[in-house]
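Give me the fold.
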Amino acid sequence: MFSPSVQTVPASKRASAATAGAKGGGWMQRQEAIMGTAITVELWCDEASRGEAAMDAVMAEMHRIDQAMSPHKPQSELSRINRQAAAAAVALTPEMTRLLVRAKHFSRLSAGAFDITYAAVGRLYDYRLGIRPDAAQLQLARAAVGDRHLLLDARARTVRFARPGMCIDLGGFAKGHAVDCATAILHQFGIAHAMVSAGGDSRVIGDRRGRPWSIGIRDPRQPGALVALLPLENTSISTSGDYERFFEADGQRFHHLIDPASGCSPRSVRSVSILADDGLTCEALSKAVFILGLNQGMRLIEAQDNVDAVVVDAQGALHYSCGLMAPSLSAKPR
């Protein structure tokens, strides 16, 4: 999973903390480390006990999804698929089936730029140790990459790998799904004003009681600085950047956003932020646009309904889709 790339800019964290303990409720916030990133929920509730219960339920859901979809947990459903699917069809839960159906949809939509089978190559990189595959390793692993080799039977709820060495990774997908699930839980608790974030993926419910939520997009090369500030309501945003996990060698930056076709890190953009109605769409398209690059990526976004993009290119210039107003990017509440 990835470290945070979208920073929320609430009116006052001190004010939120002060009202969180109020007996009658108010602004409440909680943060935990789950899925390898910071999970944050901030909400308004006029009953403190209901707000606490809602945050408990959100964090429990995040842990549940982590247990099911982590590639690092041997007993997760994802790990079981990766161990067994090359030998025989593996039975899937309804939830995993739906996610794989959506993964295939985004693979087709992006002409393969989004492809969860990239993991056969992705696992050869170690960003902490600065390790990358050599040409021979890359060629061998690329033979196991390709959505067409992922044989999904949605009706029977099974999946099988058609190539040896295949594996899948939901790292470009699961956090957006988790944020969507958390948002649904908050709705069930009657929460009308909230923000849930999982690293670079955020979704806001309603507004901040009279004004929009302010979501900042960080500068890819200046930690702590922002390139845009977006006022949002009832929308999701996901940012993918080349600064999240990377190392530099031979004058080049090797980062975790891998082009499935080449097995290498694209370098034409530094970050991509997608706004859409749901987190899963945001996260998938942020990865796809990053791989496609500015021109192809923006054409893809402009062809979608209710989807917008903010892209920082390799020179640090800011680009935005037609649905966002220039030059300040003070987007109308979505």
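The longest helix spans residues 48-69.
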